[in-house]
Amino acid sequence: MSHVRFATTQAVFDAFPEMVDKISVKPTDQSPIHFLRDLIANDKIADAVTFCAYLLPRREAVWWACGSVRTLLPDIPQARAGGLLAAEAWVSQSDDDHRRAALELGTNGDTKDPATWLALAAGWAGGLLVSNPKSQVPMPQYMTPRAVRIAIVTSSTGLPKDERITRLKACVQEGINLAEQ
């Protein structure tokens, strides 16, 4: 069963209008998977990471980001792994307790740490953005993919350029594989 929720690339952009400012390539009527493959073939790796983050459903996007961070930062010190572990726990058991635990870690974490963004990605995958007796605002759909993108991009910044591109291409390919399952 495919995890692709959109028939065309344009449909993804329509669902997430903020992508227009994050991707240098214009949307098309191509299938999202074909669009991703074209981005990789044309060395638009940052665009491919961004598009994949928005394409995948939230749970799958968090799972993909966790695997990508592990690929990009294979030696994560135990002291910095809390956000990653909380995100993985939420993916394994996507209940509100795990989501809130991840949100707590992410909210109190270092915004320069990719694991913090993984925790936020999981924490922002549901629940309420604002809750008071007069108004309850659900968590906006774009919050998780935004955090997924930041986690992956920040994980890659310390790598030499050629290695970064090679690893990011592998990460995007894993995202494609996950989307096609």
Question: How would you summarize what this structure contains?
Answer:
By secondary structure, this protein is mostly helical. It is built from nine helices and two strands; from the N terminus they run αααααααββαα. It has one domain.
Q: Determine Rg (CA atoms, Å).
A: 16 Å
Contiguous helical run count: 9
Percentage of residues in strands: under 5%
Coarse shape: globular
How many discrete structural domains? 1
Strand elements, count: 2
Order of helices and strands: HHHHHHHEEHH
Q: Report low-confidence residues grouped into runs of 5 or more.
A: none
Could you walk me through the main structural features you see in this protein, from its secondary elements to its overall organization?
- It contains nine helices and two strands.
- It is mostly helical and 181 residues long.
- The protein has one domain (9-180).
- The chain is globular, with a radius of gyration of 16 Å.
